[in-house]
Amino acid sequence: MPTRFTASQSVRITVPEQPIPIQHYLRQPQRLVNTLVDPSRVEQLSEEIFRLKLRPLSFMTLSIQPTADLRVWAEPNGTVHLQSVACEILGLEYINQRFTLNLQGHLSPCEVNGQTLLQGKADLEVEVELPLPFSLTPQPILEATGNSLLKSVLLTIKQRLLHQLLADYRCWVSDKTEETASTQMPVLPSQSSSLAPSP
Hints:
By secondary structure, this protein is of the alpha+beta class. It has helices spanning 22-26, 29-36, 93-96, 139-183, 191-194; strands at residues 3-15, 42-44, 49-53, 57-59, 62-74, 80-90, 99-112, 115-128. The chain has a single domain (3-173), classed as 2-Layer Sandwich (Alpha-D-Glucose-1,6-Bisphosphate, Chain A, domain 4). The relative contact order is 0.21.
């Protein structure tokens, strides 16, 4: 009989004011994915689909390494959505064939008392049919262990988001500001033309 594990995590980030609103930054899925997970563990499959190779997870005496394909897209107002579209458990074929993962999340910018905030939530659900002897373990113990594991996964992602997102946003604004400044610099006449005698 399949066992179901669930976890949820909310996030709220105060965004310092920058010359370019964060809504523009949030419309770039690849940058956001790289703030959630180490870029060395991310493979971009298409404009909106990313393959994430998670770190090995220990569940009782099992060590499992999930790979999840996520669709990440943004609405015009900057709200970002994440949704899992496929998953695979590497190295454990029995569990891989009996494993489903569902991750859904969103991150939305909003204005509160003149201050920009990012508010979001992620819901993670896993359903798996465990082999013997794990299937003999009492259900409450299995669920408590699995739920705790999923919660730790979401918490790790949340902590990385809190540390990385605003730093990357600042870098992106700085790069964009420099690009704009360089394209708008006036072209000065050369010295030879300025010294040329008037007709």
